[in-house]
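haha ok so turns out i had the wrong file open the whole time. this is the CORRECT one, sorry everyone. sequence first:
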Amino acid sequence: MPVTYRPACEVAILGAGPAGTACAIALARAGVGPVCLIDAARPDSVAIGETIPPDARLLLGRLGLLPAFLEQGHAPCLGSCSAWGNDTLGHNDFLLNPQGTGWHLDRAGFDAFLRGHAVESGAYLSKGARLADAAADGEEGHRLLLNDGRAMSARFVVDATGRASAFARRMGARQVPLDRLTFVYGFFDTAGAVSRSQLTLLEAVENGWWYAAGLPGGRLAVAFATDPERVTADGLSRDEGWLPAALATRHLAERLEGSRFLPGSRIARVAPSFLLDKVAGPRWLAIGDAAACFDPLAAQGIYKALEDGLEAARLIATALDRGGELGGSHAEAMRARFDDYLINRNYFYGLERRWPDSDFWRKRQQRTAFASAA
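then structure:
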């Protein structure tokens, strides 16, 4: 894939994940350019697989990528099952969904697929660079300084830097926190697995909840969501602490039967939940996790990123036609969506009442709004 640089562009997109690349592709389809896509990802960074719902088919279709995506051969996801609120395993499958199945993504392959199509659409890609500083440049837009010393100008800036919110925070935005989880992932080889389920699994336990989803190459990603302090207290940063905890579950342990744990494969990731108090300003806007991070329980990360990329491109194209101002609709839409997320998040955490003395569940059930977030 060619790596290029342009010191001046119509739109600079900071971040080349699903939100940023979707925005670049949609801008090209709208005839907007040149577009500069700044990819800060390190070559050795690990992309953990995720599941996307059947309705993502509609977004990929709007990007003009659905046939090419289907040719990638991502593993189908037939739905989910969960033990939440009681010991019984309930099922929610996609059998009646008019869009068909979802997918267990090869995340690294999916991200590369989107970057490739962004470049093919005409975006200038700078890999391994990240934002070091930024300043408004009057009616001309913004001046950006990258960490390798290069400077560039852009009429519009899209912050797609994920939970760093790198540009928005330099423009004075503040992340208003709701919650903060730590996810500790481990990986299994399922060649000898007894279960061949293609369902995502959730299982609540006293100090958090477990998640399992299939990955390419016959692997299974398993993650435990808990409070940061429990990772140290329960020894979850070591194989000998994390693996016995996984095997002490009821339904997850059955799913793991016959699978082989890959020693040393654990990865810890922070999972904050927040909304920016300012998601847009003069000639800039934040999208995806840069604008609002949801609890992974919502399972909306990639879908939300693709949707935001499409909408940001529409707003920018409209602003260019109308003299350059973005208007306030983006902020209104982000707040409305976060409010909807809060309702669903609070409902699902409120269902689990089996451990009334658990700090983990008590915190989740108390943090129902920004005012009560710690």
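The domain at 8-78+103-175+274-336 is CATH 3.50.50.60 (FAD/NAD(P)-binding domain).
again sry for the mixup
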